[in-house]
Design brief:
mainly alpha, 3 domains, 23 helices
Length: about 600
């Protein structure tokens, strides 16, 4: 938090404390402070609109998403320097061992790192909107204790039960060491999740962003170093070394966000209002409030890891029993899907993940104030940005699926590109699921995306079981199952958002213009690659096609009027950028 941010943060809280304590008798003083005249006969909720940040948090979630999005991009770029060289070091077989251990790990992690940060963020944001700063901090303290206990239980379960799980449940004995290496991370990530949720509730996304980048850098350095060092001892040991990178990253991420908290603790504590101004909530009450929000989200987050565990067993067994692949061949195909193709598909939605994380506290605060205008505006903004990110990502990955896989994983057969082609369809629907889930959580309907995701996951199981047993599809059947899961969940979430918010999305602005832009981009990318390949080879032609596609898509957004002036004004220096674009007649209001 910069010095100016601390000053603004402290100033807004101080005015809120004075009002709550009864030491600020004139409503006009509040209005003057925030640049808005308030009549003294206005009700308390209108005053809280100002104190809660209604007028200060314009486009807050998009600015927060911008911060998290930048960190997310850095995380994914750094992660690419992990997954891509790792796959080339230990091969798809080693990646298979690495990936097989992850569904159980992520399933256990979902109990702490999924629902609780959102619950903490929402409760802290709501209490701040009402001026109860101390109450928000107590939510953080209670959640910290709960998450520490969950972390210890999860660690003991995975470390003590790893042997049984890999031998009897997953049927992949060689993944035992990878699973064991992941277990210690379960001690540290839950505690880190509490700090992240608290800062997000303060609508300060910087600590989360810094800890994410730090976590990933440590994960990459330690994971690759250990994988390389242990490769001579066997592929399964190298995969375990790579897995231990997650533990090293968790320790580094927790350390940095704890230091940020300690550095800002005095300024946070100094803003506490006298405790007598608010009823002191018991630990039991806070725990119930946390669980009320966290449990539905956690269940939803646990659905896919649970399904993935079952999916792993189904895929490996179907490839062997129904088609006749050996264990090594089936594991290698599984590595192509989960360790390579999915890694690329999950890269674009990192920005929509940031949107989803940022939009929850902002919409929650608007919901407290019953500010339907702000809710509608934020929902539309989030949905538009999601489409503008998801559509070109899907088309680009589909058109260049084989060239991209050949460029990044040259040791893998050309068939690996077909896996990415099938899976690329999930990019758009995954992005929509993330954003729409954040919207539904923000308006207090967390159970809806849980239900929809469960329906999608069940669809995935059925589709995967049937299609994976078809010889010419094999592992691509599992990719189609994943696509169907997110498509079903996204469609159901969209219906729920429209029904619960009353928001209407214009067909021309939200669908037609983006589709026209991305279609022209896709055609251009295909032609550029086909023209350049005989001259420059795969790697250069692929990179040139991606760069050209980005430029063409950007120009089409301006030409078709898909992107508007308001989309740039939320960015730092947006006014200058708008002025520059107007000079070339590219900017439309």
């Amino acid at each position: 938090m910069t010095k100016s941010e601390k000053s603004a943060f402290s100033h807004s809280l101080t005015v809120g404390q004075l009002l709550v304590r009864g030491r600020l008798d004139s409503c006009s003083v509040v209005g003057a402070t925030f640049g808005r005249p308030l009549e003294c006969n206005e009700n308390r909720s209108n005053v809280l609109d100002v104190l809660g940040g209604k007028h200060m948090s314009k486009n807050t979630f998009l600015k927060g998403a911008f911060i998290l999005g930048i960190s997310g991009i850095l995380v994914k770029i750094v992660g690419a320097f992990f997954r891509i060289p790792l796959a080339n070091i230990i091969g798809s077989e080693g990646v298979g061992y690495y990936q097989v251990a992850y569904p159980i790990y992520t399933f256990l992690l979902s109990f702490s790192a999924a629902g609780f940060p959102t619950a903490i963020s929402k409760l802290v944001s709501e209490k701040r909107a009402r001026g109860n700063i101390r109450g928000g901090h107590k939510v953080f303290q209670v959640s910290l204790g709960i998450l520490a206990i969950i972390g210890i239980v999860s660690f003991l379960f995975l470390s003590l039960g790893a042997k049984f799980l890999v031998n009897n449940f997953i049927k992949s004995p060689s993944s035992y060491f990878s699973m064991l290496a992941l277990a210690p991370a379960l001690l540290f990530i839950p505690i880190m999740a509490a700090y992240r949720g608290y800062f997000q509730g303060l609508q300060n996304m910087v600590p989360t962003a810094v800890s994410q980048v730090t976590e990933q850098i440590a994960r990459v350095i330690v994971g690759l170093a250990l994988a390389t060092f242990l490769l001579s001892h066997g592929t399964e040991y190298a995969a375990a070394g790579a897995s231990f990178g997650a533990t090293a990253g968790a320790i580094a991420g927790l350390t940095i966000i704890f230091l940020i908290y300690v550095n800002n603790k005095n300024s946070i504590v100094s803003e506490f209002q006298p405790i007598e101004q608010y009823r002191v909530e018991s630990v039991e009450r806070i725990t119930k409030d946390l669980l009320r929000i966290a449990i539905p989200i956690t269940v939803g987050a646990a659905v896919l890891p649970l399904i993935n565990m079952i999916d792993t067993m189904i895929v490996l067994r179907r490839l062997q029993e129904a088609i006749g692949f050996s264990y090594e061949e089936a594991n290698s195909l599984f590595g192509q899907l989960t360790g390579m193709a999915i890694t690329l598909v999950q890269l674009p939605p990192v920005l929509t993940t940031a949107l989803a994380m940022s939009i929850v506290p902002v919409i929650a605060a608007s919901k407290v104030r019953d500010d339907t205008v702000s809710i509608e505006k934020d929902v539309k903004s989030a949905f538009r940005v999601t489409l503008l990110i998801g559509l070109p990502s899907f088309v680009g990955l589909a058109v260049l699926s084989t060239p991209i896989m050949a460029m990044l994983f040259p040791k893998e057969p050309p068939s690996a590109g077909r896996v990415l082609l099938y899976l690329s369809f999930a990019t758009l629907s995954l992005a929509l699921v993330q954003t729409l889930t954040g919207i539904l959580q923000g308006i207090g309907k967390p159970e809806i995306p849980v239900r929809n995701l469960l329906i999608g996951a069940l669809t995935k199981l059925v589709v995967t079981y049937i299609l994976t047993g078809i010889p010419f599809l094999n592992i691509k059947g599992a990719a189609i199952g994943t696509v169907m899961a997110y498509a079903v969940a996204a469609a159901l979430d969209l219906v729920a958002v429209k029904r619960n918010t009353g928001v209407k999305f214009g067909f021309v602005q939200f669908v037609l213009k983006p589709v026209v832009s991305v279609s022209i981009m896709g055609g251009a990318v295909y032609l550029i690659y086909r023209f350049m390949f005989p001259i420059t080879g795969n790697t250069v032609s692929t990179i040139l096609s991606i760069v050209a596609g980005g430029v063409i898509y950007g120009l089409m957004l301006f030409i078709t009027g898909t992107i508007l002036e308001e989309d740039f004004l939320i960015l730092p220096g947006g006014n200058k950028l708008v002025g520059f674009l107007r000079r070339f007649n590219l900017m439309k209001q």
